[in-house]
Amino acid sequence: MQLIKGGVCAPKGFLAGACHCGIRKSQSKSDLAIIYSKKKAQTAAVYTTNQVKADCIYVTKEHLENHEAQAIICNSGNANACAPHGRENALREGAACAQTLGISSEDVIVASTGVIGQELPIQCIEEGVSQIQLQEDGSDVAAQAIMTTDTRSKDCAVRFEIDGIPCHIGGICKGSGMIHPNMGTMLAFITCDVAIDAQLLQKALLENTKKTFNRVSVDGDTSTNDMCVVMANGMARNKPITMEDEAYASFKEALKTVMENLAIQIAADGEGASRLLSVTVYEAETEEQAETLAKSICSSSLFKAAMFGSDANWGRVLCAMGYSGVDFELSKVDVSFASQFGKIQVCSQGRGLDFDEEMAKKILSADSIQVLVCLGQKDQVVTCWGCDLTYDYVKINGDYRT
Amino acid sequence: MQLIKGGVCAPKGFLAGACHCGIRKSQSKSDLAIIYSKKKAQTAAVYTTNQVKADCIYVTKEHLENHEAQAIICNSGNANACAPHGRENALREGAACAQTLGISSEDVIVASTGVIGQELPIQCIEEGVSQIQLQEDGSDVAAQAIMTTDTRSKDCAVRFEIDGIPCHIGGICKGSGMIHPNMGTMLAFITCDVAIDAQLLQKALLENTKKTFNRVSVDGDTSTNDMCVVMANGMARNKPITMEDEAYASFKEALKTVMENLAIQIAADGEGASRLLSVTVYEAETEEQAETLAKSICSSSLFKAAMFGSDANWGRVLCAMGYSGVDFELSKVDVSFASQFGKIQVCSQGRGLDFDEEMAKKILSADSIQVLVCLGQKDQVVTCWGCDLTYDYVKINGDYRT
User: Fold this and answer.
1) What ipTM was assigned to the predicted interfaces of this complex?
2) pTM of the model
3) Which of A255, A399, B111, B261 has the most crowded CB, counting CB atoms within 10 A?
4) Where are the beta strands (DSSP E) in A13-153?
5) What superfamily would CATH give domain B2-268?
6) Catalytic (active site) residue B149
7) What is the C-alpha to C-alpha distance for residues B304 and A219, in angstroms, rounded to an integer?
8) What would the pLDDT profile of B115-139 be if each residue is shown by its tens digit?
9) A55, A57, A82, A304: best mutation site toward chain B, by most B Cβ within 10 Å?
10) Domain A276-398: which topology?
11) For chain B, which residues make up each domain, given as ranges?
């Protein structure tokens, strides 16, 4: 398996494009994207668990009842959630895309991201959709159009083989605020040219989601619009994957690579973030225990603020573990911090160590920091990702709508 | 019932005092407080639910097995949690207090607040404790000595009657960061001169805690050291309360008044807070439903940041309700914002209203803001309290230990 360029257009038969249709006032920021497959694709999706869901989520669920799709339309600048004429406008957005591509409305996935509660300017979309030029190198243009407070577009693609046949998986995603481990947590559109049964595609997506996107937290808020979709158009011409064999395992692993890569990009670009935090809990009794503890650390506002200040305040690591709701043996817990600048242990067997504060400060000044928590129990390991809590997070969210 | 001055010294027979013993470097900030009752008091307490507990919590629990105490010693500047010689030092802190007061160590409640993981400088405490002058007007001196990042000392006291006999309840508390609804959530020391059975005292404390301190959230982090204690020395000479009669009801209501007042002071002085948020969910089906929804709104970083920016981003209210885990009917939800500057409805039946943005901005510029969420179901009402998320929260917590 190797990382390649091209994002969602890396797999055979996928085109993408975008335009500024006018949902956003600024002409310089595109706001409408389409991803298109030349062949109808087996399609799987996971959605936000938020009880308040945008209307596009319901429409997409209906369209995917037959596990097939041929295009994704996604607008930024308006979430079409809790908004007047929400359902009608989500249906019209899908229909506009279908019409311009000459496909059926039922084969269109509809996604939106942006402010909640304002009516979607559907006419902008209906008029703008025909301006979109679909191109073989259109992935980044599409990735840019779905950004909200993201500071950079996010993509990833891999090439791998199934029975000697080259296959490709590519993805783009957006997500910066409202990021919390509970499915979805963002928009991610993944394409692949693999031939695979829809049920197996759904299974691989779901299991990988739990270990990738659901292990990212920016601020503990799960959005109303989150969606992760994977389309598989079969154009690689591999022998179709219809059981959980070696080919399935290879596919699932490649898919996980793309999803994990995208998930980490989301954590690193968390709203206002200055550092990526990777929290690894190891020597755990169970995977669930390790995951709950790692997520609790990643989600602690106090810990995240300490990381912003490069302050080795490991007491907040233990405190967050303590209120996570799962058991562990405090007297066996070791904590270390690491980065490109070195590694330092700060807590041994649940008690503070005398450590070199200068060295700790240096280690925690890096852009990417590892928090290593050893439970001293069994052999389970889980890593979760997050970011620090900064002035800019407050600034961005203190004035999001204006 | 009327509000009076005097804090923990308002009830008969209670004295308080404090000193700077040297845990904190700054001479100008006192760091050691004692509250003393002339008579041994029936005593009840609730503690942090964090699995990682400071050693003083364990020591206090042991000392309160007989439900009796005569003094509270509390230091700030060091939490004595996950710290070398933690248990030994907590015991020595209690013994030092007992010795200077000429009482038994088992009658001393030990509390600490401050940084986690550093060894408590117990010699400072042992040497400093004799400097403390206990006084009848010492409540505020004690309240100041237990502050950490609090910007103001917090107290409350009431006078009320039981069978025509004047009784008093007073309290001081501290709490600013690491505040989240899950017992404790801070240090609160409450005194009263009521004669009451220890079991009933515990019951009143526990039930009131659920509706007061546990409905406050600053940052979602539950501390290792939280404790709320109430001492009842019986010096008001009322007929002892031994059953859940009218006298008990009066007492419980007066105690709730003090606790709610202190809880709101904690929310208003949340780390870096510029505004107090009161979130009321009404016309709910059940109290649990209303409480879960109100807490979820109060705890949302995105919503808190919007309030900092006086941004009427009510979508974040619905979003936080949606991921709270409890059911409600979105199509029946109304949302309004209110303050001293007026009231404005922003959402009706789950959909956005066209509202006057200028007016909303003005309303949300107040120091105290009400968020009113009507579920349109039955008649349950719950209010929770929180504060906005500001640059100063990040600043305080980015550099807490230095």
Assistant:
1) 0.71
2) 0.81
3) B111
4) 14-19, 32-47, 68-76, 108-113
5) L-amino peptidase D-ALA esterase/amidase (3.60.70.12)
6) no
7) 11
8) 888 899 999 999 999 999 999 999 9
9) A82
10) Ubiquitin-like (UB roll) (3.10.20)
11) 2-268, 276-398
